[in-house]
Each structure stands twice: as C-alpha cells, then as structure tokens.
Amino acid sequence: MSGKKRVLSGIRATGRLHLGNYLGAVKGMLSLQDNPDYETLYMIADLHTMTTPYDPEELRVNRREVVMDYLAAGLDPKRSIIFAQSDVPEHTELAFYFATVVSVARMQHLPTFKDKVKQYPKAVTMALLNYPILMAADILAYKAELVPVGVDQEPHLEIAREIARKMNQTYGTDFPEPQRFETSGGYVPSLVGEGKMSKSVSGSYITLTDDLSTIRKRLATVPTDSGKGEKVPEKGGVANLLVLVGLFMGEDRRRTCEAQYRSEGIRYQALKDELSEAIHRELEPFQRRRNLLTEDQPYVDRVLREGSEKARRIARETLDRVRGKVGLG
C-alpha cells in the first residue's frame, strides 16, 4: 500500500443521492481523495440494499444512479477505486468464513438489528442478521484501517474488529482492527422537522438532481410556526430550516433570520424561496456534469468495470490467504 492508509466507504443503492449524502459523506470522500496520505475505495453497496425489502428493477437502476452521482460530485476513478459491491464476489465468500467465528446470539443482540426487526417485522431474514458480517468483509477484504461512517455504525465496526481479532487468533491471519473516523462533513437536517435527511423517510430530503421548482415544492412542506417569538426554536421544522439557511446562505444570514424571529418576524415564504435558489445554485455544477454522464453511458460502464477489476485484485489476494489459513488452500 506504499505506506498509505487504506479507506473504504460506501453508500447503499437505494436511490439518487440527496443533500445529506453530499454534505455529510461525499464532500468528505472528496477531501480524502485529494489527500496523498490515503488510498481510497468507494463502493456502491448494492448487496446491503438487499438486506431489507427492495424492488429488483429499482435496484438495477439505482446502482447506476449512485455511480453517476459519485462521478458528477467529483470522485475521480483515476484517484479512487469506484466499484459495485456485487461485482466483487470475494466479499460474500469472505463473509462466510467470517460467519464461522461469530455467534448467532451476538448478531441478535445488536441494537441495529433489533431496530430493523421493529421496522421490518415481516422481513427478518438471514441477510439482515448477517449484515454486519458482510460489512466486515467489505472492510477487511481490503484491510482498510479507516472507515468514515457516522456514530450509528459504531456497533457494526465493533463487530468488524471482533472478527479481525478472532480470525487473527484462530487462524493466524493479519487483519487490522478498523477504526471509525469522521470527515469534514456537515449534518443536514430533515425537511419533516425531525432527525436528518434520509432516503428511508419520505419527504425528508432534496436530491442532488432536483430542479428549482422541485426544491421549492420540497421546502414548502417544512413545518413552521407564526414566524415570531421571544426564543428561536432549537428543534423542529423552524430550527431545521435555519440550519439549511446557514449551510447554503451563510451563518450571517442565519443570524439575521434569528434576530428577525425575535423582533419583526420572519416571512417564511420569502425565506424558503430565497433558500431554494441558493440550494439550486449550489447544485447547478453537479447537475451539468451529471447530464453529460447520462449521455455517456459507455463511460459509466467502463468506470464500474475497471473499478471492480482493481478491487477484485486486492480482495482476491486477501481471500487466497484466508483460504489457506482456514484449511482450504
């Protein structure tokens, strides 16, 4: 690895990227790609998409949508390995070997698994139970030391570390124990007034391909109040709207809005229109690049094919060594 630290990051193929993905993850990916200290691998996590209910045709389309969003945002296949998880079968084979050192009880006790069981009570599959094991295989196939994910993924990373330790102790492998670290991403709040933007929450997000009219319609749904009061709300729709103002119109504009709230009041319709235009201006360069990619599908195919070939070379080397260690080589 030429002394560079290897970093793996991925986004599930559940639809086009939104502002939360862009500011919270992709901008961090770009900063790592530009840093000579890191070797970066960026994955479309299509297999992980299959761990919860999904539509096959949508998955087929969404794989390409995420790749085009990655490229339009600035990820460079000459500087990063960009690939689809399912194009590297070494991940699933390695996950099986990892499953031999993890108990069912350990998987069932994960808070993330329990949350998904509540969310999808009629779709509690082995794929869902094994999600963290496959995630460990994604990471350890490349012996990645660093994984830029949110704190909500820490339980899964702990599983990856446990697997690395057990594989090393049981079979004499040399897996690193991957650590979570945060890139310089921003928290982008939901449009529905609670939590952050998420593709799993209808109406909560603005996609990177939305035009000005669509952005206006989406912002129009953000819940607000009378626009005036002694204290600016710290949570809910108004608070989230002001966070977006700070992100796309600047912190000075946000402070002005807060002062207006405590004095003459805010005219939300005018503010939402102004914010819509600011967000659209931010997205215009991305959308121009993406339109060019839409017209050049052979290039998108080539990026995926070449990226997967590069990823497979690394993963195959890891898998060959593991097969030898576990008695199959």
TrEMBL record:
GO terms for cellular component: cytosol. Its EC number is 6.1.1.2. GO terms for biological process: tryptophanyl-tRNA aminoacylation. SUPFAM superfamilies: Nucleotidylyl transferase (SSF52374). GO terms for molecular function: ATP binding; tryptophan-tRNA ligase activity. Gene3D superfamilies: HUPs, Tyrosyl-Transfer RNA Synthetase. Keywords: Aminoacyl-tRNA synthetase, ATP-binding, Ligase, Nucleotide-binding, Protein biosynthesis. Belongs to the class-I aminoacyl-tRNA synthetase family. This is Tryptophan--tRNA ligase. It comes from Candidatus Chisholmbacteria bacterium RIFCSPHIGHO2_01_FULL_52_32.
